[in-house]
């Protein structure tokens, strides 16, 4: 292997300047072609986009040795890479990541109906030669990503609960990594979707907004368990308009009245979705975006993958450390005044409405309905996570119930909607239900 390592020239693979692939048939007849995409894999391997059945493809299958010319878009330095073809992947993490990037590139150049990834050709890099030295000095980096990541890590280590962890994550992305638009979504394995628990930089927080696995860049990253980075806007991997248009076209327009507004940018030109995984299971996805093309680099991707690893560990610890025994309730619930508020519950999906205002559904909806039932029937206001886990009305899954995260979602949703019912944390594993109006419960 040469002294030049692949990870030091990753800027050459961003697609700003097309790469040129040189191949030859068994008779030595050369052929050169431009490539849509070069994907860095590790310090010895790259993947090239396979899009057409052409002379290049035939040459690679007959003669696995090839040459690739790439250019650093910032300095003009040119490199030649000696390659050896290994295999073609047509599914899985690598393929889905390259497919998403190609869709963004195709939209950018007006060829969304032409560019289609057939496979990801994996090559071993056997030699790297610099054939033309830098013709321009490299620009200074906007920030030291490693130093910023260290500061983020220190702040996350100081968090004491999930709500603080989620808020600090959003703040660190903005203040330390210069990422102005971000959202954190958690996985609901029962519903097969992800739901938003925190966001930053948007007009609507989108708390409670859901997206199915496999839908858009967020859902694909979650389903495949791999980070996906897109440098140009693409309709194929958008996550809001596609869902709404599908519902409108299928006669489900009325159901959209209960939809929570999506928190994302209307014109997102750069996207990066990173799965949060721990103990061999999906916990959620960290998603960032920008109205600027080519905003996120390989370094940004590395930083967020590392940050998500720490997030997963912190979430696992916070949700599995036993809480202390419940403390006795010291005072009864204060008297409430005003006109009764009708709260409706739909048992099929645990959807809860305050009057005609949609509030929450799913497991969080079941939790809210159980709390309100106990309040109306017994005046109970003090609760613990432990007793909720044992409550058969909530129907938590046996494994990975994610109760603490669902309580954070519920508390934020009630606050955001300015509901006359709030949840206040009173200690680790304990909270209080605060009700400001008389309630009239109705099963719909």
From TrEMBL:
Gene3D superfamilies given in the database record: 3.30.450.40, Electron Transport, Fmn-binding Protein, Chain A (2.30.110.10)
UniProt xrefs under Pfam families: GAF, PNPOx_N
Signal peptide extent: none
InterPro entries found in the cross-reference section: GAF, GAF-like_dom_sf, Pyridox_Oxase_N, Split_barrel_FMN-bd
Domain GAF: 161-325
Protein name stated in the entry: GAF domain-containing protein
Domain of life: Bacteria
PANTHER family per UniProt: 5'-PHOSPHATE OXIDASE PUTATIVE DOMAIN-CONTAINING PROTEIN-RELATED
């Amino acid at each position: 292997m040469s002294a030049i390592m692949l990870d030091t020239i990753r800027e050459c693979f961003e697609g700003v300047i097309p790469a040129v692939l040189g191949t030859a048939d068994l008779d030595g007849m050369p052929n050169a072609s431009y490539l849509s995409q070069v994907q860095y894999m590790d310090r010895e391997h790259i993947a090239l986009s396979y899009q057409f059945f052409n002379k290049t493809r035939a040459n690679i299958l007959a003669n696995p040795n090839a040459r690739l010319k790439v250019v650093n878009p910032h300095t003009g330095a040119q490199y030649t890479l000696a390659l050896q073809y290994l295999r073609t992947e047509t599914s899985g993490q690598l393929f889905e990541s390259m497919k998403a990037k190609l869709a963004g590139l195709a939209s950018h150049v007006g060829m969304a109906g032409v560019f289609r990834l057939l496979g990801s050709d994996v090559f071993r890099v056997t030699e790297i030669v610099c054939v033309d030295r830098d013709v321009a000095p490299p620009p200074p980096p906007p920030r030291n990503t490693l130093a910023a990541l260290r500061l983020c890590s220190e702040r996350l280590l100081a968090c004491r609960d999930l709500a603080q962890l989620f808020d600090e994550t959003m703040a660190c992305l903005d203040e330390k990594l210069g990422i102005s638009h971000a959202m954190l979504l958690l996985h609901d394995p029962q519903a097969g979707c992800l739901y938003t628990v925190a966001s930053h930089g948007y007009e609507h927080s989108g708390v409670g907004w859901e997206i199915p696995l496999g839908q858009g860049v967020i859902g694909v990253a979650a389903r495949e368990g791999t980070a996906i980075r897109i440098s140009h806007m693409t309709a194929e991997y958008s996550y809001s308009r596609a869902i709404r248009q599908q519902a409108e076209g299928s006669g489900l327009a009325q159901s959209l009245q209960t939809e929570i507004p999506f928190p994302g940018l209307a014109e997102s030109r750069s996207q990066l979705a990173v799965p949060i995984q721990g103990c061999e299971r999906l916990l959620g996805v960290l998603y960032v975006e920008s109205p600027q093309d080519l905003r996120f680099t390989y370094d940004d991707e590395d930083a967020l993958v590392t940050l998500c690893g720490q997030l997963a560990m912190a979430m696992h610890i916070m949700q599995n450390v036993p809480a202390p025994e419940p403390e006795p309730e010291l005072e009864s619930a204060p008297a409430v005044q005003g006109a009764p508020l009708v709260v409706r519950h739909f048992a099929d999906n645990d959807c809860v409405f305050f009057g005609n205002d949609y509030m929450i559904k799913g497991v969080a909806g079941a939790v809210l309905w159980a709390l309100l039932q106990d309040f109306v029937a017994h005046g109970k206001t003090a609760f613990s996570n432990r007793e909720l886990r044992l409550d058969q009305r909530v129907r938590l899954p046996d494994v990975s119930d994610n109760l603490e995260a669902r309580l954070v979602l519920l508390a934020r949703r009630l606050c955001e909607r300015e509901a006359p019912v709030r949840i206040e944390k009173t200690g680790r594993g304990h909270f209080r239900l605060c009700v400001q109006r008389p309630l009239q419960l109705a099963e719909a």
